[in-house]
Amino acid sequence: HKILSEKHAVSIILFLYVFGPRTRTEIYNAISSSPNMPKKLELLEKYGLIKTVESEYSNKKMTSLADLGNKFAASLIELEERSGGDINEYRMAKIKAMMPEWGRIV
């Protein structure tokens, strides 16, 4: 099984790198509401890219990057920056997409 060929795998990793630990619902809302998303998260966890942790502030389970996922995301971001990309543009685009009312504020 080739994990990186899985649709949304890289997007999930980058999202968690930029925004930190999130609930699965937050990941679904930001990346995809496909019924296959739980399986994709299980696969990423199986291969040591993400992990499930308890929230510091509530009883919610959070998904965060494991060490391998952090290293992979950092490498992707370095490549993006070398090619002239900007992770802050990604961050803002994702925030705007997650918050439809954002357009009325900015």
Main beta sheet strand tally, sense and closure: 2 strands, antiparallel
Number of helices: 6
* Terminal residue distance: 43 Å
Q: Proportion of β residues?
A: 5-15%
**Secondary structural class:** mainly alpha
Low-pLDDT ranges: 102-106
Shape: globular
Physical arrangement of strands within the biggest beta sheet: 1-2
**Gyration radius, rounded:** 14 Å
* Helicity range: 55-70%
Overall mean pLDDT stands at: 85
Instruction: Count all strands and give the number.
Output: 2
Order of helices and strands: HHHEEHHH
Highlighted features:
two-stranded antiparallel ribbon; 106 residues; disordered C terminus; globular; single chain; 58% helix; mainly alpha; 2 strands
Question: How are the SSEs placed, and which strands pair?
Answer:
Layout: H1 9-19, H2 24-31, H3 37-46, E1 50-54, E2 61-65, H4 67-82, H5 87-98, H6 102-105
Antiparallel strand pairs: 1-2
Describe this structure in words.
With 106 residues, the chain is mainly alpha-helical. It is built from 6 helices and 2 strands. It has a two-stranded antiparallel sheet. α1 packs across α4. The N and C termini lie far apart (43 Å). The C terminus is likely disordered.
Report a brief summary of the structure.
With 106 residues, the protein is mainly alpha-helical. It has helices spanning 9-19, 24-31, 37-46, 67-82, 87-98, 102-105; strands at residues 50-54, 61-65. Strand 1 and strand 2 (61-65) form a beta hairpin.
